[in-house]
Amino acid sequence: MSALGVQSFTQQGWEQVLAKVKRALVYLDAACAESLHWGCGSTRLLEAVGGPACHLREFEPAAVAGGAKQPKAVFVLSCLLKGRTVETLRNIICRSHFQYCVVVTATNHAVHLTANHVPAAAAAELEGQQPVFEQLEEKLCEWMGSMNYTAEVLHVPLLLAPVSPYLALTPAFACLFPLLPQDVDLLNSARLDKKRMGSLGEVDSTALTPELLLQIRCLVSGLSSLCEHLGVREECFAVGSLSRIIAADLANYAPAKNRRKTSTSRASVVFVDRTLDLTGTVGHHGDNLVEKIISVLPQLPGHTNDVMVNMVELTALQNEEKQNMIAPGCLAQSNDTAAKALWEALLNSKHKEAVMEVRRHLVEAASRENLPIKMSMGRVTPGQLMSYIQLFKNNFKALVNHCGLLQLGLATVQTLKHPQTAKWDNFLAFERLLLQSIGESTISIVLNQLLPMIKPSNQRTNDDYSSEELLILLIYIYSITGEFTEDKDLAEAEEKVKKALVQVFCEETELSPLLQKVTGTQPSHHENTQSREGSTWRGPCCEELKPPSTHNTSLPAMRVCYLGSRACRASTLLPLAKPCLSS
């Protein structure tokens, strides 16, 4: 597949949006903001908006409304225009003074017909018409207060966040997780009058919940638009139960059938269930610097695949209170050619080579700015890289010219100096020991070896594993073990580990966001969930997690987790979840 084609697909979509945003307030949901972030950058959007003020706002019920001098709004949304999304639209518009509203949705009109239960035969007759969008346009005018005002609703396929020329993510579907064996019982319970399914291999689209089926159709809509942009006729292959359903839905998707009749080129599309490599996800066998950066630095709020880089080192601020005034840096540098070249090198190089690339780029940038750089050979250290970065500190012009490069340099330094990076090798050594132990003994013995490492916070040292790290190790143990026979020894070992974990959770002075999800102690309000169809942190297919109990929770359920690739941050794992069957 052409890298240029994938990048131009995203850029072409955003160009359609940018053509609508002049002098407008722009509301974006998190998934579209991430696509913008990697695709063309918020600076490009602000330039298209024009005006001295910042006109970008998060799409949420509590979003700031438009004032009397702000008559135009553009809403850029990744989801269906249905349910809570429409309620939020109405809420914002009714509190504002808009006279012109544009709503952009990344979901095709055909999917909206499906969401509104329009039969396939009736939908085929509506080809070329968009009654759902037209009805919403009337509602927008009604909410603005006059049917003479202007409203537009259009579809733009903002599916991808292109991290590099050959790597694109789909942030709106970060929480889409494959079905698990125990989900079959839940599916059977909802179809009492039909034949019971015995395994995941028997599950098809007719057995899925309407919510999950709609989410799959939204993904299929975006993929079909991508294939249309590339001018290809796709041949789909699938590995895994949910992947098989998605591939079949793409093959049977009506707009895709029409497109394939005229496509001249071919492309192979391979779908793979994310559950098939949990070991690689939680393991520390990788030797890639980007993997470590994303694993240890704090996540950029609202994003699934970018981090916050502390930029205070390049300022003159000394007061800690003032340090919070400095916006964090990030990894996405869409408008900086040199930084993009370094980013691609980091993605494709081993750790040692990547660190040397950072040094080379910093040295070349300092030389171009005639900064007094002192060359040193040999092993690259965080202190050495920091000394090069500090050369730019008091040179505003040089800072502006190489801002993207400096952000990547600081991300590297902060990762190399982070305590979690030092623990990486400890994890690797223990994982190798686990591999050897599991090959020579039973899993009950391995769990008993892990038991002494489960310590409450007041007994842990810097070398001990935290609660989150213990969960990752448990996922690793069960993932590499595969099928095994349950016996009395295993039951006793699991019970001991389970009780020790519960005790540790109870004695934590403050639960991390991850442990709040695991134990079900998140705040009752759902501002960080995606059950409302606008914002994205947890997907509409995620269930509320139940607190661990020494009576009703079996440790093998640790294998039932939400854990994407490490690129989606291993720290987002949600053990004990049934992610795809929320009612």
UniProtKB/TrEMBL annotation:
Superkingdom classification of source: Eukaryota
UniProt cross-references to InterPro entries, sorted A to Z: Sec1-like
Annotated GO biological process: vesicle-mediated transport
Residue ranges, annotated region (Disordered): 519-540
Protein name: Sec1 family domain-containing protein 2 isoform X2
